[in-house]
Specification:
It is built from twelve helices and twelve strands. With 354 residues, the chain is of the alpha/beta class. The strands form three sheets. Strands 3-4-5-8-9-10-11-12 form an eight-stranded parallel β-barrel, surrounded by seven helices. Strands 1-2 form a two-stranded antiparallel ribbon. It has a two-stranded parallel sheet with strand order 6-7. The model has no long low-confidence stretch (mean pLDDT 97). The structure holds flavin mononucleotide. Flavin mononucleotide (FMN) binds next to β4 and α10.
Length: 354
């Protein structure tokens, strides 16, 4: 059996193979509510054979949205529509995972299908927040630096969203600590210039994420996994580094985090990223080897051969695919046939895959 199609046990869950659909914003929700589009989009990828389906960045409070069309879990009314989706995903043998997120200073945009600009308050935007009053770039708003009380509020909102995620039927919760959103803004010395217990030293910059992981681990049942997505490097001297990611992974592992989903970049503009197929795999590999935590590799993993070799060579425990899954929701079935593996077809489609 090809390594990519070996099951993986994680707490009480068994992933049917090593393929996950990575979080992807669809910018198609209204007031945070997922709708039929999300059901069909996420549901068809469950039918497609992936083991885990991660939702788009799902905002823990309204000002945590990247765009005004992001999905959310900031109110109880969001639970039922998500439940419909998680039930469908599970009926098709996949595991529903939610990526809980706060955009921080990179929030409040109009639709990317339109002009994609940070909206003024009068047009539905909001005052953005961050670790420090440092904008992402000169075109972005200067964010409000969260006070200690406000950090506490953000944490409580994150915990309340986690409780809702559980009620909505999600089996994995992923903390979005990557791509320059709020958690990254605290991790990076470029965006965090605080002089209190949340800024300065490594221990202080990771404090928000550590407190979130600790609190979420208490809420999320012991038998279910917690994942954390980070940007393992920001590709710039003096910024968040792979060495800090390894040190963070050790802390998170001790707190009961089950997997680091290792992405990179997104916190500062204009950095040169060496991009090639599987360009971030070495981050997942280094974190896995040096901290002993399970990792997910992501980024330009397009072929079944590359995906399988990542698992076979123990560079990561799972692969997460984003754009390939948009191109082909049946990517896992294609990969299985290319690698000579068999995966169960939905009974309704049996005559095609029999
Ligand atoms: C349309 C789109 C939306 C995305 N939204 C998110 C998101 O909500 N959260 C996240 O962590 N990454 C997001 N990403 C990044 C992907 O999860 C992934 O890390 C990245 O696209 C690289 O993987 P790929 O080469 O397989 O596409 C998004 C990517 C795309 C293409």
């Amino acid at each position: 059996m090809a390594s990519l199609f070996t099951p993986l046990k994680m707490r009480s869950l068994t992933l049917r193979n090593r393929i996950a659909v990575a979080a992807m914003c669809m910018y198609s929700a209204e007031d945070g509510f997922p709708n039929d589009f999300h059901l069909v989009h996420l549901g068809s990828r469950a039918i497609g054979g992936a083991a885990v389906i991660v939702t788009e960045a799902t905002a823990i409070e309204p000002r945590g949205r990247i765009s005004i069309d992001d999905a959310g879990l900031w109110k109880d009314e969001h639970i039922e529509p998500w439940k419909r989706i998680t039930s469908f995903i599970e009926e098709h043998g996949a595991i529903p995972a939610v990526q809980l997120a706060h955009a921080g200073r990179k929030g409040g945009y109009s639709s990317p299908f339109g002009d994609y600009q940070q909206l003024p308050v009068e047009q539905g935007g909001w005052e953005t927040v961050s670790a420090s009053a440092i904008p992402f770039d000169e075109k972005n708003k200067v964010p409000h630096a969260l006070t200690l009380e406000e950090i506490e509020e953000v944490k409580q909102n994150w915990f309340a969203a986690t409780e809702r995620a559980l009620k909505a039927g999600f089996k994995i919760v992923e903390i979005h600590g990557a791509h320059g959103y709020l958690v990254t803004q605290f991790l990076s010395p470029f965006s965090n210039q605080r002089d209190d217990q949340y800024g300065g030293s490594f221990e202080n910059r990771i404090r928000l994420l550590v407190e979130l992981a600790e609190g979420i681990r208490k809420i999320w049942p012991d038998e279910l996994p917690v994942w954390v997505r980070i940007s393992a490097t920001e590709w710039k001297e003096g910024g968040w580094s792979i060495e800090e990611s390894v040190a963070l992974a050790k802390v998170l592992k001790d707190l009961g985090v089950d997997l680091i989903d290792a992405s990179t970049g997104g916190n500062i503009p204009g950095v040169k990223i060496p991009i090639f197929d599987g360009y971030q795999v070495s981050c997942a590999e280094q974190i896995r080897k040096e901290s002993g935590i399970a990792t997910g590799a992501v980024g330009l993993i397009k072929t079944s051969e590359l995906a399988n070799s990542i698992i076979e060579e123990e560079k990561a425990d799972i692969v997460l695919l984003a754009r390939e899954m948009l191109r082909d929701p049946y990517w896992p079935r294609r990969a299985a046939s290319e690698l000579g593996a068999t995966i169960e077809a939905p009974k309704q489609y049996g005559r095609a895959w029999g």
